[in-house]
Automatic annotation (TrEMBL):
GO terms for molecular function: delta(3)-delta(2)-enoyl-CoA isomerase activity; enoyl-CoA hydratase activity. This is Enoyl-CoA hydratase, mitochondrial. Its EC number is 4.2.1.17, 5.3.3.8. The gene is ECHS1. InterPro entries: ClpP/crotonase-like_dom_sf, Enoyl-CoA_hyd/isom_CS, Enoyl-CoA_hydra/iso, Enoyl-CoA_hydra_C. PROSITE patterns: ENOYL_COA_HYDRATASE. One of its GO terms (cellular component) is mitochondrial matrix.
Length: 291
């Protein structure tokens, strides 16, 4: 049987065997479901979904099995009404060192094109709940692309971001050329994609790829804290806000503003909009129904 893990109270990873890992809001997460990731709920109110990539020997190289498991965990958190935000992290050494090169080495064009290789990798970009990447160590190739599919990136001060595919005779294949260019601009994106050079956490922050940089041991807790803040708001309204910001990637300014206006108008059909404004007027904290 594959090695399974669950985190003990002391934070240590312990081998685990097909035993329920946690029970939450009518939904049961079973540690045995996952071989390559650790899945938990975090935060004071257990309202932050937490996914830790866990292939330490391969620096969290993103093999197909790992990405399928991430997709499954995201589905679980999307369906869990207790969860209001999701944090994805790796280890101190590596968020993820890229797609699994050993798995890709002998693939043919026919297999890639015919099988639509990597088609399911963008799953995290389709999730409605806000997703925060907490990045320590290497975020390279598919690892950098995976982080960029998240909504917010927090980085540890030793994190390194890069798109080194050119050194392997290929190019980014999961949005790297697109999302990196939108995040840092054409010149730096070109340099990174064409040379394979990495940038530090500080450079990534300066360039707009990363929101905040923290000491290595604080990145995850800060990401969870951000997740808790988001989860304390209305989930319904957060999903609308996320949809509107993401539309800025895809639409013209006029189309984007039109979509934003429609979504803004539709918040007035919700109880949470009414509660938010009423709470302000009554000088109390809002108690959102959909939180
Ligand atoms: C498979 C990987 C891997 C990867 C590291 N490993 N990266 N295995 N795929 N992407 C494995 C190594 O083979 C090794 O296992 C172990 O992890 C430790 O790696 P080392 O190289 O010994 O560590 P270190 O010297 O510290 O160097 C770390 C590193 C280097 C700089 C991150 O491993 C590296 O350059 N990795 C490849 C980075 C990369 O090119 N990423 C892009 C991949 S292509 P063994 O068992 O051999 O000791 C890509 C395409 C995306 O992502 C397309 C769309 C998704």
């Amino acid at each position: 049987m594959a090695a399974l893990f669950c985190r003990s109270a002391g934070g240590l990873l312990r081998p685990f065997r097909l035993v329920p890992c946690m029970v939450a809001a009518g939904r049961q997460y079973t540690a045995g479901q996952y071989q390559y990731i650790l899945v938990e709920k975090k935060g004071e109110h257990q309202n932050v979904g937490f996914i830790q990539l866990h292939r330490p020997k391969a620096l969290n190289a993103l093999c197909d099995g790992l990405m399928i498991e991430v997709g499954r965990a995201l589905d679980q958190f999307e369906a869990d009404s207790q969860i209001g935000a999701i944090v994805i992290t790796g280890s101190d050494r590596a968020f993820a060192a890229g797609a699994d090169i050993k798995e890709m080495q002998n693939r043919t064009f026919q297999e890639c094109y015919g099988g639509n290789f990597l088609a399911h990798w963008n799953k995290v970009s389709l999730v409605k709940k806000p997703v925060i990447a907490a990045v320590n160590g290497f975020a390279l190739g598919g690892g950098c692309e995976f982080a960029m599919m998240c909504d917010i990136i927090y980085a540890g001060e030793k994190a390194q971001f890069g798109q080194p595919e050119i050194l392997l005779g290929t190019i980014p294949g999961s949005g790297g050329t697109q999302r990196l260019t939108r995040a840092v601009g054409k010149s730096l994106a070109m340099e990174m994609v064409l040379t394979g050079d990495r940038v530090s956490a500080q450079e990534a922050k300066q360039a707009g790829l990363v929101n905040k940089v923290f000491p290595v041991d604080q990145v995850v807790s800060e990401a969870i804290r951000c997740g808790e803040k988001i989860a304390s708001n209305s989930k319904l309204i957060s999903a609308m806000a996320k949809e509107a910001v993401n539309a800025a990637y895809e639409l013209t300014l006029a189309e984007g503003c039109r979509l934003e206006k429609r979504l803004f108008h539709s918040t007035f059909a919700t109880e949470d909009r009414k509660e938010g404004m009423t709470a302000f007027v009554e000088k109390r904290k809002a108690d959102f129904k959909d939180k």
